[in-house]
Amino acid sequence: MIQDSNEPRQFWAGAKPVNVPFEVSCDGRMQNTRNLEAGQKVLLSGVVYTARDAAHKRIVRLLRDMEKPPFDLPGQIIYYAGPCPARPGHVTGSLGPTTSMRMDSYAPVMLDSGIGGIIGKGPVSQDVVSAIVRHRGLYFVAIGGAGALLSTRVKEMKAVAYPELGPEAIYRLVIEEFPVIVGVDTKVRSIYCLSTGTDHKLRKIGRGIFESLG
């Protein structure tokens, strides 16, 4: 469990540890995802890949041309983010989530090609939700405004494709207890439909984390 003294532990108490990437069954669906529910607090550990607009455009073009993408997609989690430059002694600078809707036109193709899930912020389109459910994937929501905190959960980072894109290159991250909330689960439930005021609640949580960091 998260131990940093600056962490608002009360909110993340009881969060479920989840290892990534996900295992993929022979029918192309994700394993061990059906027991996670929208609104559930999760701590991700393992490997994820960053990708934003420019990288998604290139990957989807490769997939449509039946060419090999720059990394193996099955089971992988894509984090919609671009790292800020790291200070000396740090793995990365601030690493907060990008608005997920910006990738909505690409996400169904990525999910149909085998990725296990997405980390971003804000709601996603119905086409993305349908693709998530179709493959038993998951959409995780990271807290906006907490990029400095999230960067401390990154233990290793390496650019693996498109370095000319700078922060929008694809980076392989090794993460440990990376705090997220299940935004869309395998049963078509979404935190943006469960109750009113979800956006306000998430913004409030984000402000609390940000303010706790001083």
Written account of the structure:
By secondary structure, this protein is an alpha/beta fold. Helix content is 26%, strand content 23%. It is built from seven helices and seven strands. The protein has helices at 9-12, 53-64, 107-112, 126-134, 147-151, 191-194, 198-212, and strands spanning 16-20, 41-50, 77-79, 117-120, 138-141, 154-161, 170-184. It is globular. It starts with 8 loop residues before the first helix and ends with a helix. 39% of the residues are buried. Mean pLDDT is 88; it is low at 195-199 and 205-214.
Which percent bin holds the helix content? 25-40%
How much beta, percentage-wise?
Answer: 15-25%
Order of strands side by side in the largest beta sheet?
2-3-4-5-7
Largest sheet: 5 strands, mixed, barrel
Question: What is the C-alpha radius of gyration, as a whole number of Å?
Answer: 16 Å
Strand-helix topology:
Elements lengths: L8 H4 L3 E5 L20 E10 L2 H12 L12 E3 L27 H6 L4 E4 L5 H9 L3 E4 L5 H5 L2 E8 L8 E15 L6 H4 L3 H15 L2
Parallel strand pairs: 1-2, 2-3, 3-4, 4-5
Antiparallel strand pairs: 2-7, 5-7, 6-7
